[in-house]
Write a structure and sequence with these properties.
Number of strands of chain A: 10
Number of helices of chain A: 11
Number of domains of chain A: 2
Shape of chain A: globular
Helix content of chain A: 40-55%
Mean pLDDT of chain A: 78
CATH class of the largest domain in chain A: Alpha Beta
Helix content of chain B: 10-25%
Largest interface: A-B, 40 and 30 residues
CATH class of the largest domain in chain B: Alpha Beta
Structural class of chain A: alpha/beta
Distance between the termini of chain B: 65 Å
Shape of chain B: elongated
Oligomer: heterodimer
Low-confidence stretches of chain B: 558-563, 703-713
Mean pLDDT of chain B: 84
Strand content of chain B: 25-35%
Order of helices and strands of chain A: HHHEHEEHEEHHEHEHEEHEH
Radius of gyration of chain B: 40 Å
Structural class of chain B: alpha+beta
CATH superfamily of the largest domain in chain A: von Willebrand factor, type A domain
Low-confidence stretches of chain A: 1-5, 34-45
Largest sheet of chain A: 6 strands, mixed
Distance between the termini of chain A: 31 Å
Number of helices of chain B: 13
């Protein structure tokens, strides 16, 4: 069972499934199955059902009456209330189309967004989505109805990576539009000026939003382990650079690490959570980060 | 002015191959894969500096690879430069003198016969010969018969050089140089070279030979000296053998005398000398020699030990004997051949005169045969001048005239005939001798000695006599050096004599210069009395060895074997007592066969082979199926001293001085330089290797950017 759940969290495995809704359900179900000891599993104010106590479960949910009557330990489970408004910000710039091993950053971000939306809606949170690229963006306002998931998935399905990243402008515009404070989840490769990214995050923070940044990168973007000399063409600008990876690799990696550290540092400074994921990172890590954030917020 | 060229220019057609790295570089640039990548900005941040550095390095690698290929191809094309004085563009007259004398059979520093090193050098010279070159090859043992003359046929020249081997002959360097000089002088070619290959033995390079080298060098020829050895190699030799065996110490047994010489700057170890008669060892001994010492060594001989051997003894009781010593650098002179025999008992006829009924004194008879039984090696008979009428050489070996006044005409004639037959004569003058008769009649034609009176010592004085000739056989029994007194006895009178030609040698003389003993072949004259008439000589210890020395001298020099020493390179010759029954043939070692010419000489016959002996050994004269004589032929001992001359002594001089090329590799290098130009292929290949090594270093070194500020993407 555990092995099955692990497989369901593997991005490559999941990407083989055709339907996004099915994929999202599989991911979340698999994730929750693996989280049976997790303190984040659906606890709310309205009673839903009992389940057997497991070591590690908090005693505050123990049904003392059942214990007194039957001398058996059961936990009371509740239907969770909707008290979180989350907006998923998905970068659809051309750079997100890069894939070194079959799964592009956009695919990964798309799948992760679907899974988060499914999870959120399952927990009765309101989920909205803003897909943006340079000079364009599409917003679905947050709702908590189960049918809302379909609307989100339709949007995700038809997203295509194109255009440049005008990350800061898009986010500043969105920050102005989203009045009610909530959770802002950014899924992007953040290929923009770190200072401007920091400005956008600061804008959200100024509006009292909580910000969770999923920095989605392809492993090759970090390691740059190409074999031979090649001409590298920028996905967004079309710039060309001919070079030998084995000679520049170390310097490249040093610079990428510095860049990521810088973004992480900005996020810390702006009190935003920063999670670096690569397209081969299992989804549970992102989901755990989300639940951790949610637990802190509630 | 030196010029640059390629000896294998055909390889230069491969030069376009050097463009392979450039083509590969261009093709690889053309076919570079294109990768769409999102984070180009990080690469672009590196590009201005690192990319430039990488491109620079790529360019450097490209240059190194291309240069390496160019150098390799050019290296195979054998680049060369022509140094000054090269004969690359003109044919050359080349005279090669290759020393093939006996000493070239000695081992060099690497225990290889010197002739091999010489051949190696000769082949190198021949190998460098080109079309149009005139090459002459001469050996030192046959300068009058050059092996090649004006030949440019390299194959034939090589075969000629390969066939050169050492011969048992001394080198005639002067004649070989003269031959080479004439060859070069006759050549119409401008470039003329002389190569002298050999061990540069000091005995071969006489002052005349050195002058010849200088002359050739001054005549516009380039002279190259190619020594195969650098220093003197110690060598001992058996230089000579006494053909007569002698009685041993105290008259017991026999001993043989061998002359040994040590050509070295240090004493020898103990040398073992052995004498063999056939397969049987008949004697020998150990001898140690000082540095550069030469001396006669007496070796005990057991003559009978060889009688069982299958080597026959001839009619005179002589048999072939081989004497050997330990082998050293030159093995040829550590063996010597001789035909030896037990000492003959000399048959001596004393001619005396009775005066006044007094029997003549018997001092001489007692000195020669004290026991009167012939055991001392002499059979002495006594006669009067009339006895001379019946003498012949078959009956007596030596006749002694003891203070005879004069001889009758018939006796004198018979005595001269006896002398021609090979007999020996000892004449002792005295108070009764008619000096005028001797000086005017008997001595002319017999010995070049003039006698004109009697010299008497002052009253109460005596003549002091001293040895004059060094180590003369007459004085063999006396331990004397030149100038030392012969005897302490008192001689009060002497016949006053004077030698008239160098053929008559004054062996002993007075301090005033009067000759006392004069020797000539077959004749010895004592110008005093062998009795006690003119002093007390017969009572001195010197008397017996002196008388025996006089008789031995007369007998030895008169023996039929007294032909000049038989050496390799000369026709073997012998003396026959009787006329051979038919044609005389000579056989010798290594299938030697020759006919001999026989001519009458004295009472016997002299037989001389028609062909020279080519190797040492025994040469047997045969008439019909019968052996009539055996001759021992030995090499000339002049080749034994392996001391080279200092090459510098030849190489110095004015103008184009002879140049020494000490090793084969230096010769090859010289030939390459002068014939083909100085080859640079090794330099080119080293350069290519350096380029490839640099390419390896540059190619594997990673270009690292300094830790820089991380720029914003």
């Amino acid at each position: 069972m555990a092995q099955t759940s692990q497989r369901l969290l593997d991005p490559h495995f999941v990407s083989k499934l055709a339907r996004l809704d099915l994929r999202a359900r599989l991911v979340v179900d698999g994730f929750l199955t693996g989280l049976h000891k997790s303190p984040y599993h659906g606890f709310s104010v309205e009673f839903a059902e009992h389940r057997q106590y497991m070591p590690g479960d908090p005693l505050r949910h123990l049904d003392w009456k059942v214990l007194a009557k039957s001398d058996r330990k059961y936990l009371k489970q509740y239907e969770e209330e909707t008290n979180l408004r989350a907006t998923l910000l998905l970068d659809t710039s051309a750079s997100m189309s890069y894939s070194s091993h079959g799964l592009s950053k956009l695919d990964y971000a798309r799948q992760l967004a679907a899974s988060l939306a499914y999870l959120m809606l399952r927990q009765n949170d309101a989920v909205g989505m803003f897909a943006f690229a340079s000079g364009r963006g599409e917003l679905i306002p947050p709702r908590s109805t189960p049918s809302h998931l379909r609307q989100l998935l339709v949007l995700l399905d038809r997203l295509e990576a194109a255009g440049g990243t005008d990350f800061a402008s898009s986010l500043h515009a969105l920050a102005e539009r989203v009045k009610q404070r909530g959770l802002v989840v950014i899924l992007s490769d953040l290929l923009d000026d770190p200072e401007r990214i920091a400005g956008a995050i600061h804008h959200f923070r100024h509006r009292k939003h909580e910000v969770l940044v999923f920095h989605v990168l392809d492993p090759q973007e970090i390691t740059f382990q190409f074999e031979r000399e090649a001409t590298y063409i920028d996905l967004e600008s079309g710039d060309r650079v001919t070079t030998r990876p084995q000679e520049l690799g170390e310097d490249y990696r040093t610079r990428v690490r510095g860049w990521m550290d810088r973004i992480r540092q900005f996020c810390v400074e702006k009190q935003a959570d920063y999670v670096s994921v690569t397209t081969d990172t299992p989804y549970d890590r992102a989901l755990l980060e989300y639940l951790s954030k949610r637990a802190r917020l509630l | 002015m030196s010029s640059f060229s390629f000896l294998n220019p055909g390889f230069l057609w491969a030069l376009p191959l050097a463009s392979i790295p450039i083509l590969i570089h261009l093709l690889s640039k053309r076919r570079l894969p294109e990768i769409r990548f999102p984070t180009i900005m990080f690469l672009r941040a590196l590009e201005p500096r690192e990319i430039r550095r990488i491109r620079l390095r790529e360019l450097l690698l490209l240059v190194l690879r291309t240069l390496a290929l160019i150098l390799i191809i050019c290296g195979f094309a054998r680049p060369s430069v022509e140094p000054k004085g090269a004969t690359t563009r003109a044919a050359a007259a080349v005279a090669v003198i290759l020393d093939d004398s006996e000493s070239m059979g000695a081992l060099d520093e690497v225990a290889r016969p010197r002739i091999e090193g010489a051949r190696e050098r000769g082949l190198a010279i021949v190998d460098a010969a080109r079309a149009g070159d005139e090459v002459a090859i001469t050996t030192t043992t046959g300068p009058d018969a050059p092996l090649a003359n004006r030949s440019g046929d390299r194959v034939r020249l090589e075969r000629t050089v390969r066939q050169i081997g050492t011969r048992w002959l001394p080198g005639a360097m002067e004649q070989a140089l003269e031959r080479a000089r004439r060859f070069l002088g006759r050549s119409a070619l401008k470039a003329r070279e002389l190569y002298v290959i050999g061990d540069f033995q000091a005995t071969n390079f006489t002052p005349a030979a050195r002058a010849k080298v200088a002359l050739i060098s001054r005549s516009g020829n380039r002279v190259y000296l190619l020594p195969v050895v650098a220093s003197r190699v110690p060598n001992h030799a058996i230089e000579d053998l006494d053909p007569e065996l002698r009685p041993g110490p105290q008259g017991k047994g026999l001993e043989m005398r061998a002359r040994l010489v040590n050509h070295a700057d240090a004493p020898t170890d103990r040398l073992a000398v052995r004498a063999r008669r056939g397969d049987a060892l008949i004697g020998g001994g150990d001898v140690s020699l000082l540095a550069d010492e030469a001396r006669w060594a007496s070796l005990p001989i057991d003559w009978r030990a060889g009688e069982a051997a299958a080597v026959a003894v001839d009619s005179k009781g002589k048999a072939p004997v081989v004497v050997e010593s330990d082998v050293d650098a030159l093995s040829g002179d550590d063996r010597r051949y001789a035909v030896l025999g037990a000492p003959r008992r000399l048959r001596v006829l004393r001619i005396v005169e009775s005066r006044g009924g007094v029997p003549p004194p018997r001092f001489v008879a007692l000195a020669l045969d004290p026991a009167q039984d012939g055991s001392g090696g002499y059979a002495v008979e006594t006669g009067t001048p009339a006895s001379l009428l019946g003498i012949n050489h078959g009956r007596y070996d030596v006749v002694i005239l003891e203070d005879i006044a004069s001889l009758s005409g018939d006796a004198e004639t018979r005595l001269r005939s006896f002398l021609r037959e090979g007999g020996g004569i000892v004449v002792a003058l005295g108070p009764h001798a008619d000096l005028d008769y001797y000086g005017r009649k008997l001595f002319p034609g017999m010995i070049d000695l003039a006698v004109d009176g009697t010299e008497r010592a002052a009253e109460g004085q005596s003549f002091e006599i001293r040895a004059r000739a060094p180590a003369h056989p007459i004085l063999d029994g006396l331990s004397l050096t030149v100038g030392s007194p012969l005897t302490q006895s008192k001689l009060t009178a002497l016949a006053r004599g004077r030698t008239t030609t160098p053929r008559a040698e004054a062996v002993v003389a007075t301090t005033g210069g009067l000759p006392v003993i004069v020797a000539a072949p077959q004749v010895a004259v004592f110008l005093g009395s062998l009795s006690d008439d003119w002093g007390d000589l017969p009572y001195s210890g010197a008397f017996v060895p002196l008388v025996r020395g006089l008789v031995d001298h007369a007998a030895r020099t008169s023996s039929p074997g007294s032909l000049e020493k038989a050496l390799v390179g000369r026709p073997p010759a012998t003396y026959l007592d009787v006329s051979p029954s038919g044609a005389v043939a000579v056989r010798g070692p290594e299938s030697y066969r020759s006919q001999a010419t026989v001519v009458a000489e004295g009472s016997g016959f002299r037989a001389v082979a028609d062909a020279p002996a080519v190797v040492p050994g025994f040469y047997v004269f045969e008439s019909g199926a019968r052996e009539v004589a055996t001759v021992a032929v030995n090499p000339d001992p002049i080749e034994s001293d392996l001391k080279p001359i200092p090459i510098d002594s030849l190489a110095t001089g004015s103008g184009s001085a002879p140049r020494a090329l000490l090793t084969t590799s230096s010769l090859r290098s010289h030939l390459r330089d002068t014939r083909q130009g100085r080859e640079l292929w090794l330099l080119f290949l080293l350069g290519a290797t350096a380029c490839l090594a640099a390419e390896l270093v540059v190619g594997t070194a990673r270009i690292t950017a300094p830790a820089a500020r991380v720029p914003a993407p």
